[in-house]
Amino acid sequence: xxxxxxxxxxxxxxxxxxxxxxxxxxxxxxxxxxxxxxxxxxxxxxxxxxxxxxxxxxxxxxxxxxxxxxxxxxxxxxxxxxxxxxxxxxxxxxxxxxxxxxxxxxxxxxxxxxxxxxxxxxxxxxxxxxxxxxxxxxxxxxxxxxxxxxxxxxxxxxxxxxxxxxxxxxxxxxxxxxxxxxxxxxxxxxxxxxxxxxxxxxxxxxxxxxxxxxxxxxxxxxxxxxxxxxxxxxxxxxxxxxxxxxxxxxxxxxxxxxxxxxxxxxxxxxxxxxxxxxxxxxxxxxxxxxxxxxxxxx
Length: 298
What we know:
Helix content is 60%, strand content 12%. It has helices spanning 18-42, 51-67, 73-80, 82-91, 94-113, 123-143, 151-162, 167-185, 187-207, 223-234, 261-274, and strands at 2-4, 213-220, 238-244, 251-260, 279-285. The protein has a five-stranded antiparallel β-sheet with strand order 1-3-4-2-5. The model is unreliable at 5-14 (pLDDT under 50).
């Protein structure tokens, strides 16, 4: 048995001009989708969607209801995200934080500019479909290596450190925000907001697969070749074991590796193209401890 942990000289990379286009496109679309969601579903149901978006809406509504002051959403949201953005630059990555700041600014001003266009006033439909749109918008931003800011910074940072999804932890923080909203404006809207946030969290967990891990066992006659190609593709370490098939008594190799669920399809296709007779077993990993390569957010 041998464990292969050295970094290969060839690494899967996208052209340098391609990633900025993808990130910018994702940020633009996610900002528009989130803004439309706020003005169509969130406003219609008087929901507080959680996170700094929800906190901004809560402060805006509190100022207007109790003090008669109309504050622009853009001013509140940008001000609240200032400190998390500084922390993001230092602890997460400059490019990731830069695209996130772009999304915060775009979303903030779009919310002020887009007219209110309610689709339905049914609170349950608003909570469910609004939550789906919110989770989809955040997932698109994450695919573009950005986020919607605020508590998303916490989720991304914890996920990179713990090697597992942390969006449910952020959901717990949001419940505190929503409980506060319940005391101020009534618990019916707050409870529907919790449904909204729960649906949003589960949508992210479903669509954003990078934080979820899978264990892959590959039985092949071409272990040396496959281990090198897989490492060039993913940069993850591989354990190489010499095994014997019990039916034909043939000596074979078994490769064991852990990778992100978003990489499973690509690695499976790679193995199939190099060894069509390879046997692949994929198992969901609940958690890992130890060294695991994470693509830097920069």
